[in-house]
UniProtKB/TrEMBL annotation:
Keywords: Kinase, Transferase. One of its GO terms (molecular function) is kinase activity. It holds the Pfam family T2SSE. Residues 1-70 are annotated as: Disordered. It comes from Methyloceanibacter methanicus. This is Protein kinase. Residues 45-62 have a biased composition (Low complexity). Belongs to the GSP E family. The keyword Transferase applies. Residues 1-10 have a biased composition (Polar residues). Residues 139-413 form the Bacterial type II secretion system protein E domain. InterPro entries: P-loop_NTPase, T2SS/T4SS_dom, T4SS_GSP_E_ATPase.
Length: 508
């Protein structure tokens, strides 16, 4: 089928190539890319692999590389891979679908292994077949990690070092790349799928995988020890507030309060540090958007997973080689105001687009949402102020704060605790302005009581005793006033005198 140029694969010695030939793996991958390996059906394979995998076989996936992948294994793989590249017709391979291409590669690799008379067990040969198929069609050594649903982050620090985050803890992985050249080739393959590039002239790049997972690449010369690749993986199944409740991130009453906030079209900012679950929580809140609303999302890398039927997804664009053609987040937010949105959702507010988002929130686009990095609701407002000033707006501080208080209704604070558990620590209402100070009131907070014998944080979510928050009239307009009152009153915790604790431990 492939028009093999040399089906007998000449000069195939029965022993692996000497160690000096090892770097050829990276060179062969690059050569394959130049001759249309990238045009092979890698995206469908990469997209389908996580969907077919299940969390159950996670442990064996970690043990296999430790058991078989010695230096000798990589030498054998180098020799077989080079023979495959010399044998296969890459142009014909690119025309096949992922399954057919994978089967064809397996047949040729089996033939090469037989001719070379390589002594391998059936399990080792199967691993070799899988690795070579991944190198040609997928993301190489990353494929086993991408297939595991229990991994939250993949951090590649050059060809020799890879770390993963499992259950909130970072651990070393035995995955390695043949060379920095192979790692760079895989980075190029990932970012090219979304029309971006990473090289010496543009060494920093944000991209995404077909399943929405967030990707960041920083290449030499900025990354000294080889390309640094970071992937924030998304789970196959979209999380809901009910699941966050089961995980202990929020209490049942807090889950009800958040669902009401999402439904009654409060303007919401989700604040938190890196890895605290801001994007996950934003996805959960958007589940309560009515299906007849037109939602427009603006993101640096499109990763939100909205389930509504009427969603328009916008994504920023970096400049081209000449430094032109850049589309910033502010450009997207300003443009989406002309697209008749009911709600605007900004994936992450990090610059002067904060000014345009606040204007949108204050001009009829109720229920708009966004995330930003900060460590508390009070700091969230300071960050908003700073980002507006970054845009060069020469406005008095009071004017900016009046804009914030008239635009933002709710701040939801997400935090990653020291035991790696993600918690929603504050649901805070923006009340108004007293003099030069923005007034906040906590509706729902998380009290830390200590830790158990296993080092896990012990605490509780509770209401602060405010029965009629400022958005009560909005909830009554949508028919959710009784449910709002019930969830706040049922989450109250009294002190030894029978009085609600209020905001006494709000900063715990």
């Amino acid at each position: 089928m492939f028009g093999k140029r040399n089906s007998s694969a000449p000069d195939l010695s029965p022993r692996p190539a000497p160690p000096a030939a090892k770097p050829v793996v990276g060179e062969a991958v690059n050569a394959g890319t130049d001759t249309n390996v990238d045009q092979a059906p890698a995206p469908p394979q990469a997209a389908s692999a996580p969907a077919e995998a299940a969390p159950a076989p996670a442990a064996p996936a970690r043990k296999a590389p430790e058991r078989a992948r010695s230096e000798e294994y990589y030498d054998v793989k180098t020799t077989v891979f080079n023979a495959l590249i010399d044998t296969i017709d890459l142009t014909a391979l690119a025309k096949l679908d992922a399954d057919a291409a994978r089967e064809e590669i397996r047949d040729i690799v089996n033939e090469i292994v037989a001719i070379k008379n390589v002594v391998m067990s059936i399990a080792e040969q199967e691993e070799l077949l899988q690795d070579i198929c991944n190198d040609v069609l997928g993301y190489g050594p990353l494929e086993p990690l991408l297939m595991r649903d229990d991994i939250a982050d993949i951090m590649v620090n050059g060809a020799e070092t890879t770390y993963i985050e499992v259950g909130g803890k970072v651990e070393a992985s035995s995955i390695r790349f043949a060379s920095n050249a192979q790692l760079m080739n895989i980075c190029q393959r990932i970012v090219s799928q979304v029309g971006r590039r990473v090289d010496e002239s543009s060494p920093i790049c944000d991209a995404r995988l077909p399943d929405g997972s967030r990707v960041n690449v920083i290449a030499p010369p900025l990354s000294i020890d080889g390309p640094a690749l970071t992937i924030r993986k998304f789970k196959k199944d979209r999380l809901t507030l009910d699941q966050l409740q089961r995980y202990g991130s929020i209490s049942p009453e807090g889950r009800t309060l958040l669902s009401i906030i999402g439904r009654v079209r409060c303007n919401v900012l989700i604040s938190g540090g890196t890895g605290s679950g801001k994007t996950t929580l934003l996805n959960c809140l958007t589940a309560y958007i009515e299906p007849d609303e037109r939602v427009i999302t603006c993101e640096d890398s499109a990763e939100l997973q909205l389930q509504q039927p009427h969603v328009v997804r916008l994504e920023t664009r970096p400049p081209n080689l000449e430094g032109e053609g850049e589309i910033t987040m502010r450009d997207l937010v300003k443009n989406c105001l002309r697209m008749r949105p009911d709600r605007i959702v900004v994936g992450e507010v990090r610059g002067p687009e904060a000014f345009d988002l606040l204007q949108a929130m204050n001009t009829g686009h109720d229920g708009s949402m966004g995330t930003l990095h900060s460590n508390s609701p009070r700091e969230c407002l300071s960050r908003l102020e700073s980002m507006i000033l970054m845009g060069g707006f020469n406005l008095p501080a009071r004017t900016i704060r009046e804009m914030i208080t008239s635009s933002v209704d709710i701040i939801v604070q997400a935090s990653r605790m020291r035991d790696a558990a993600a918690k929603i620590t504050h649901i805070t209402e923006v009340v108004g302005l007293e003099g030069e100070i923005v007034t906040l009131q906590d509706l729902f907070i998380y009290d830390v009581a200590g830790e158990d014998a296993n080092g896990r944080i012990v605490g509780r979510h509770r209401s602060t005793g405010i029965a009629r928050p400022y958005f009560y009239e909005r909830a009554r307009y949508f028919g959710d006033d009784k449910r709002l009152t019930e969830c706040l009153s049922s989450a109250e915790v009294n002190d030894e005198h029978g009085r609600p604790l209020g905001e006494k431990f709000a900063t715990a």
